[in-house]
From TrEMBL:
NCBIfam families: LarB. GO terms for molecular function: hydrolase activity. This is Nickel pincer cofactor biosynthesis protein LarB. Residues 120-252 form the PurE domain. The gene is larB. The lineage of its organism: Bacteria, Bacillati, Bacillota, Clostridia, Eubacteriales. InterPro entries: P2CMN_synthase_LarB (IPR039476), PurE_dom (IPR000031).
């Protein structure tokens, strides 16, 4: 089981008489984690948070990543996210696991599930093409977690008409992820147009006074638009994860 939908399906099978309570209990109470020596793989993450554990690839060897993936796959986990995975490591890990890898986002989905739903509507908007790596990390994360995602790339405030031509898409979203570097103004503009939560993602794109994304971060934190929250610099994964939680809140799919 890799998400709360699988757990609910198991419980509904018990309620319908299609599965024995004892079998369901055994599946749920199996060891909550496995100690691999270099990692303690958390198998109860879906019970607590709704999705299986995500692997942060930077700083781990391909062998360590493969070992963690193997342990999770043995527990029937799918759509396992591996973030910040460089192409060389992805090539090695791909020899032992089924990977859907994006070199742009440096993100892999291991053992992708064909039955992944596309619920609700999340929009990922970027200020410029240079923000695409972070934007794709957010979009792919949300899609792997079962959300419908629309990408609006290169719609920054330097050419505001590009954003305004997509108002119908923005206003139909349940959550918008606004990704921008430079001065980070996109989040404030989007926040003033929509009635849903906006997750602002500052990027490290910009010239010297951008300070590696700090100027965009401070601009977004000081946004005058209501309903804008901010994640860390270049944290597309965190934005995609949070957008998924908002989009799939109880009753949001009605």
């Amino acid at each position: 089981m890799d998400n709360k939908r699988d757990i609910l399906a198991l419980l509904r099978a018990v309620a319908a008489g299609d599965a024995a309570p004892e079998d369901a209990l055994l599946e749920l109470k199996q060891s909550p984690f496995e100690d691999l020596g270099y990692a303690k793989v958390d198998f109860h993450r879906p019970v607590r948070q709704g999705n299986c554990e995500v692997i942060y690839g930077a700083g781990k060897t391909p062998e360590q990543i493969s070992g963690i993936l193997s342990a999770m796959h043995e527990r029937c986990c799918g759509n396992i996210l591996v973030t910040r995975l460089d192409p060389a490591a992805a090539e090695k890990v791909g020899k032992t696991a089924v990977l859907d890898y994006s070199p742009t986002a440096r993100l892999a989905v291991a053992w992708p599930r064909a039955d992944t739903p596309a619920l609700g509507h999340i929009v990922v908007a970027s200020g410029g093409t240079s923000d695409m790596a972070v934007s794709e990390e957010a979009a792919l994360t949300a899609e792997a977690m079962g959300n419908r995602v629309t990408r609006l790339y290169d719609v920054g405030v330097a050419g505001l008409h590009r954003l305004l031509s997509n108002l119908d898409v923005l206003m139909s979203a349940r959550c918008v992820v606004a990704v921008a570097g430079m001065e980070g103004a996109l989040a404030s503009v989007v926040g003033g147009l929509v009635d849903c939560p906006v997750i602002a993602v500052p990027t490290s794109v910009g010239y010297g006074a951008n300070f590696g994304g700090l100027s965009a971060l401070l601009s977004m934190l000081n946004s005058c638009a209501s309903g804008v929250s901010v994640v860390n610099i270049d944290n597309g994964f965190g934005a995609g994860y949070l957008a998924s939680m908002i989009n799939q809140m109880e009753g949001a799919q009605e």
